[in-house]
Amino acid sequence: MLRISRNRARSVVTALGVVAAVTAGAVVPASADTAEPRPRAARYVALGDSFTAGPAIPRQIDPRCGRSDANYPSVIRRTLGIAAFTDASCGGATTDHLWQRQRATGNAPQLDAVGRDTGLVTLGIGGNDSVFADLFGRCVHRTGTVPRDNPCQRQYTRGGTDELDRRVNATAPKVAAALEAVHRRAPHARVAVVGYPAIIGDDVEGCRASLRIADGDLPYVRGTLRRLNAMLRKQATDRGDLYVNTHAATAGHDACRPAAERWVEGLRTLPGRPSAPLHPNAYGERAMAKAVVDALVFGPGR
After folding, report:
1. Would you call 141 a catalytic residue per the annotation?
2. Which candidate in 124, 191, 241, 277 could, as Cys together with 52 as Cys, close a disulfide (CB 3.0–4.6 Å)?
3. Helices (H), the chain
4. Phi, psi of 136 (to 5 degrees)
């Protein structure tokens, strides 16, 4: 549950509304009893991949993209009382799909949603460019016995360098370019880069049962996901943008925890709690929303 005082949340919305009005240069006529024009409400635009979209979580409002009205952007929108809202997130999106139409889903270029009236942008992307494209396909042992050693790590590092590290590093300039494009289109918007949640915890036996990843590969995969978030943090802070640490917000509720405690699902999901495997469920999306709202209201150290 989001516990944010209404006054603090209202102050965020007011500030964003003033930004949008100044940016758009648009006001409504003053009423008879006031000399000051009223600012146009700020638009909130959410950009991102499936971790933003919320696939399989009810209610699905765009099944092609796996986009839910219970995902973290929608929860943020309701919590802050933002009326003007566009959620452009889509499952499978890479940074390329910020500029290009996503052929598999028909989703328009996500940056098309950002304009001069945009006062808030959240960006959760980069995992499909660097890590998620085949990491779990290669590291998950869906049949047979789960090994105790580290076959996945050996596969990704067999050439003497770490292939996943290379991909994360290669994604950094793409995220930087995305942030610069957002600022060009919405020069006064508040921009928050939203990191990825805690997927893999420290419970080895729980991870074996839930994720079927080899024991020796768990530290490697966990470290790769942390380096992905570290890259996103650096790209955000280097440009003066906000980074939201959703890993910390979901710690202790990862996919290796007992099913009732999970905010991120394992390979199997519960019938009464629909969500995509290896993705946040509705509890996880709410926790991610709270982390964003806390960061906006109280600052990034919250």
Report:
1. no
2. 124
3. 6-24, 50-53, 72-80, 127-130, 135-139, 151-156, 163-185, 204-211, 218-238, 246-250, 282-298
4. -75, -25
User: Rounded to two decimals, what is the model's pTM?
Assistant: 0.89
State the residue for tokens 């950002």. Answer: 114
Tokens of 173: 């300039």
Given the residues 97, 188, 247, 279, the one annotated as active site: 279
Class of the CATH domain delimited by 6-19+39-298: alpha beta
Residue 40 scores a pLDDT above 70: no
Give the span between the Cα atoms of 198 and 256, in whole angstroms: 10
First to last CA, the chain: 16
Residues in a beta bridge with 47: 123
SS3 19: helix
Query: What is the average per-residue pLDDT within 64-81?
Result: 98
20 pLDDT tier (thresholds 50, 70, 90): very low
Q: Is 69's pLDDT higher than 60?
A: yes
pLDDT at 32: 36
Strand partners, 107: 102
Distance CA 106, CA 64 (A): 8
Identify the active-site residue in 11, 50, 74, 183: 50
**Confidence class for position 300, pLDDT limits 50, 70, 90:** confident
183 is catalytic: no
Three-state secondary structure call for residue 117: coil
- Burial code (b: 16+ CB inside 10 Å, e: under 16) for 250-284 equals beebbbbbeeeebbbbbeebeeebbbbbbbbbbbb
For 54, other C-beta atoms within 10 Å of its C-beta total 34
Q: Based on the number of CB atoms within 10 Å of its own CB, is 221 exposed (0-12), middle (13-18) or buried (19 or more)?
A: buried
